[in-house]
Amino acid sequence: MALDSKIPAGPLGEKWTKHKGEIPLVSPANKRLIDVIVVGTGLAGSSAAASLAEMGYNVKAFCFQDSPRRAHSIAAQGGINAAKNYQNDGDSVYRLFYDTIKGGDYRSREANVHRLAEVSRNIIDQCVAQGVPFARDYGGLLDNRSFGGVQVSRTFYAKGQTGQQLLLGAYSALNRQIAKGRVKMYARHEMQELVVVDGKARGIIAKNLVTGEFERHSAHAVLLCTGGYGNVFFLSTNAMGSNVTAAWKAHRKGAYFANPCFTQIHPTCIPVSGENQSKLTLMSESLRNDGRIWVPAKKEDAEAIRAGKLHPNDIAEENRDYYLERRYPAFGNLVPRDVASRAAKERCDAGYGVNKTGEAVYLDFAAAIMRYGAEEAHVKGVKNASDADIKALGEQVVEAKYGNLFQMYEKITASNPYKEPMMIYPAVHYTMGGLWVDYNLMTTVPGCFALGEANFSDHGANRLGASALMQGLADGYFVAPYTVGEFLSKDIRTGKISTDSPEFEEAEKAVRERTEKFINNNGTKSVDHFHKRLGKIMWNEVGMARNEKGLKQAIADIQALREEFYANVRVLGSANGMNPELDKAGRVADLIELGELMAKDALERKESCGGHFREEYQSEEGEALRDDENFTFVSAWEFTGVPAEAKLHKEDLVFENVELKTRSYK
Amino acid sequence: MDLTLKIWRQASPEAKGEMKTYPISGVEEDMSFLEMLDYLNEQLIDQGIEPVVFDHDCREGICGMCSLFINGQAHGPGRKITTCQLHMREFKSGDTIYIEPFRAKAFPIIKDLMVDRSAFDRIQRAGGFISVNTSGNTIDANAIPVPKESADKAFDAATCIGCGACVATCKNSSAMLFASAKISQFSLLPQGQPEAKERVLNMVHQMDLEGFGNCTNTGACEVECPKGISLENIARMNRDYLFASLSSNK
Known about the structure:
The structure holds two protein chains of two kinds.
Chain A: H1 15-22, H2 28-31, E1 35-39, H3 43-55, E2 58-62, E3 80-81, H4 93-103, H5 110-129, E4 155-156, H6 162-179, E5 183-186, E6 189-197, E7 200-208, E8 214-218, E9 221-224, H7 245-252, E10 257-258, E11 263-269, E12 292-296, H8 299-306, E13 320-321, H9 323-327, H10 337-352, E14 361-364, H11 366-379, H12 387-413, E15 422-431, E16 434-435, E17 448-450, H13 468-488, H14 502-519, H15 527-541, H16 548-568, H17 580-604, H18 628-631, E18 633-638, E19 647-652
Parallel strand pairs in A: 1-2, 1-9, 2-5, 9-17
Antiparallel strand pairs in A: 3-4, 6-7, 7-8, 10-16, 10-18, 11-15, 12-13, 12-14, 14-15, 18-19
Helix pairs in contact in A: 3-6, 3-13, 4-5, 5-13, 11-12, 15-16, 15-17, 16-17
Chain B: E1 3-9, E2 18-24, H1 33-46, E3 69-70, E4 73-74, E5 96-100, E6 109-111, E7 114-115, H2 118-125, H3 148-158, H4 165-169, H5 176-187, H6 196-209, H7 220-224, H8 232-247
Parallel strand pairs in B: 1-5
Antiparallel strand pairs in B: 1-2, 3-4, 3-5, 6-7
Helix pairs in contact in B: 2-6, 3-5, 5-6, 5-8, 6-8
């Protein structure tokens, strides 16, 4: 099947307005006859379900958590971008568009990204109208801050809990529709299979996680808002339950999977502490506004720190290497995530890492505390303030800005970041890849849509900070509710979709068989045992730096792991009733298959771009070397039976408005 | 470190539950409490014993999914943390730790340590929203300035994660802190005013329907709240409720 991205004709700035105006409308009377399933209730899912219900469709929404409010969007800390230019620093829709294209290393679609930048402004208006308590200045107006990869302040925030506040806003909109009976909410339900009838997505098989029962749900369209697949690495900043199952089942039923190897490794996470660690915790990128990143300039100092013989506060200024400021003077500590992560790895691999593992760098607030303290002393008219006074004043300012993040850090590490520098290291955070979608956010299975992190469309090879929240809400509030019209307008005469068809029958049978296989397997190793091993393979060979030999090895190792998993996994308990181990087994089975496809995609992409760094393709200074001539395309993989034989389809990326340049933050 | 765990096991909502004893060794200080339970579960699986079921997801203190009554305290020892943020360095080798589910009439047990908190969702549905359509065609976000103090207070109230520690801790199993947090958030913002009266009446009504108890101003909820939601919110809700009851057109 040839890929048709359905990008509307016309000038970039007019495409969306024109397209939106031309999408066929479904009359209110007919909307009542149309059912839509929304899987996942994060920013994309909650906002889409609420908006579609508001428009008049019958919506069924599903989440595996006990409440839609718990989806992992809630954990996003730093903020949400919008081209409001409230700070009067020269921001505009075009700049947000340009920064996103450049930040994505020229591997995203111009038209989608421009649309995202356009609707970004509506998001802030909408959220404020919903009562989202964004940070404000003393004049009562909205406050902004800066994020990596940009030179303006366009990030709106609610302390370090922006994702929580935005999700609760979308959850409240969803609740309003649930209360009206327009959305039927299925919490503690997980999608197990996509049902395709006559080539169209017409429903899902869902599992009631409390009773263990399988349920058939039909609809005229299915929206997958199921997030990313970072948990393929086992250790990531994702929630424990985040998984790829819904997207992967759609992939197996014909939805192409795009750019699976584009993974974001976030530079500022709390380093790994031990073998029994279950997840990693992010420290918001907003900290890089004020924190300076460094390692000792002398190897012997780094060694002394690792051995516990030297304290970072005792290293003199001239013996510190602020390597981001040194290598990238124009952007300094605010380079994009992929650049910052690789630079940290480079220093640690070279032997300058701190922490007992040698895999950590410092994020230091001492300078910011003194700077803010001096400012406060001046504002308060404190004359001849001592260093200690200034420090105390500065600590108050830093606490107001980042208090909850500092507290979170201290809880986990038992170290006080006001007194000594934080230790951080990159960790898997976000996946730019996802289900391939056209401009209408429809996958290659007609009627099956993918929104938010679950699709691939807007961030190219690297996402900029504070853009995930923007995309989730843009897709859910302002894009999908309109673009589904093109598909659904043809369904006004279809009538209710029956769940008694052979397609539903077969889909349910397949799910039952998979489940019984796990329960009756009588293996010897737990699900987590296999998940951890998968994670190690992925982190070592398909992580921050990749090469041909390692990727080939990873593919072989994952294939072997898959066989062993099916032969030897042990799931206790029964299929009737609550059984989290059984649910986990199904998720890990899909992650193993996805892992192999990621390695294959990384192997085929013989260039370095954004989060995908192939060691064979780098400049003399160690920067990523893109190959625009041969790789300016989206890799969309078609499932043909096993990941090893997935078929590659290419969507050529055409840049009509932006000139492809070497991405430089120097 | 070596510990003795006493854990509530209950096969289903109808089944009779009991405390079971599990000795565990090799627990590390850096483990979070939930990682300690993961570690226990791995050992149980090896022994052919069904692992302990407990709710959890984000493991960074924000989703509100984890719960647990640990040694008689919601989210265990320590202030302003959830169970997933509790680390084993708070315990010492030789300790016996009692682990129970959040108990309240309105939170029926599903299995082991997992409870059903959907009553919270129903309270939110009764009015925890501002009735604005999601068209994006609202007024500009900066059109209505909100005094920083109100905005900050609204934010503080809005940080409630809906975990239910307040209910589990309260001797009356009252959900006043939870309900008042959402009511306060909107009560403090200009956007929340048009529906303020209906909101407080409807949410309080739903809270009563769900079987939560009344507030007797003990203040235990505030102490155990992982987000430090203030009792001030309950006072505000009571004031709003009184005002709405006396002046509502309904």
